[in-house]
Amino acid sequence: MARKSARDRMSNEINAGAMADIAFLLLIFFLVTTTIVEDRGILVRLPPWAEDEEIEQIADRNVLSILVNAQNQLLVRGEREDISNLRERSKEFIMNPMNLSTMPASPRDAIISLRNDRGTSYETYLEVYNEIMGAYNELRDELAESMFGERYEDLNIDQRREIRSEIPMIISEAEPTEFGEER
Amino acid sequence: MSRFRKKRGKASPAIQTASLPDIIFMLLFFFMVVTVLRDADIIVQVTTPEATELTSLGRKSLVNYIYIGVPYDRYQHIYGSSPRIQMGDAIRGLNDIALFIGEHRLRVPENQIPAITTSLRVDGDVTMGIVSDVKIELRKAEQYKVNYSARPRIE
Question: A148-155 — which CB contacts under 8 Å span 24+ positions?
Fold first, then answer.
């Protein structure tokens, strides 16, 4: 009788308490080994490769030439410029608010030409690129605001296309010159 | 009376832990799904520059990475101290870029090939010479969608 009651007291449930420990162990393993790297950056589209590129004649007024030398100095249309002014300068060039004859008649004609030395640091290059992108993004935002009352990011695909046809982003990158020491 | 007292005495004082594993497993699965194991061992040191006009990259399976930078100290006796190109988990040359892109294309459904992005993770101190060479190789390999990886600028 006594033996039988002992068997009755035995629980026929599996002890699940230790399962949490095992799961915790796995959880901690995954927490430690994984890294959430959110990669962000400046998205660009490279032009197709052509062995001998045709040289197109473009009116001077439509081109904003930017040169970055191996000392990371900037030359915009032949004169020294500071990187911090580049965004304003590009915006003025693209929109040509004063209707000057030295700047494009419409934003559709505007071309920004970027040239650097092989010795230019990548950081400077990206900073310049960032400023040009910033100028275009600000202009598109402004136009989107006046046309649709919304920011460019919030527009739908058709509206975006309209803005893009109004202010296309044309950045031409020439082959780098051989100047400067590479490291 | 005696019956009530007996019932109260029998009540188990222990907290039910049977559902605890379920909760932990749920967390576990969340982390397993959300995180991606880094597949490549980074050989070159890369500190990406800062920028403001950033876009997030989409699906991980459609992104391949090219690292350019100076190898870490512990690898410098093998790879030297000038900037090198790392693709996958190895240092490779300019000629391998087309192959590297081609390998990635094989692993992706055909209709998604145009959406493949190459993320250039380049150290800020590297000079443009090597970067331009890589860009030319990418253009030759018809890989036009490129991301210059950068960190958000804190102002």
Answer: none
Band of residue A130 on the pLDDT scale cut at 50, 70, 90: very high
Mean pLDDT of all residues in A114-139: 91
Contacts A–B by Cβ distance under 8 A:
167
ipTM of the complex: 0.74
Contact A27 B63 (CB under 8 A): no
Residues 20-49, chain B: which have Cβ within 8 Å of A?
20-21, 24-25, 27-28, 31-32, 34-38, 48-49
Give the integer Cα–Cα distance in Å for A142 and A87: 15
Inter-chain residue contact B54 with A175, CB threshold 8 Å: no
Q: What is the pLDDT of residues A139-154, one digit of tens each?
A: 999 999 998 888 888 8
- Min Cα separation B1/chain A (Å): 25
> What's the Cα-to-Cα distance from A106 to each of A47, A98, A99, rounded to whole Å?
23, 12, 9
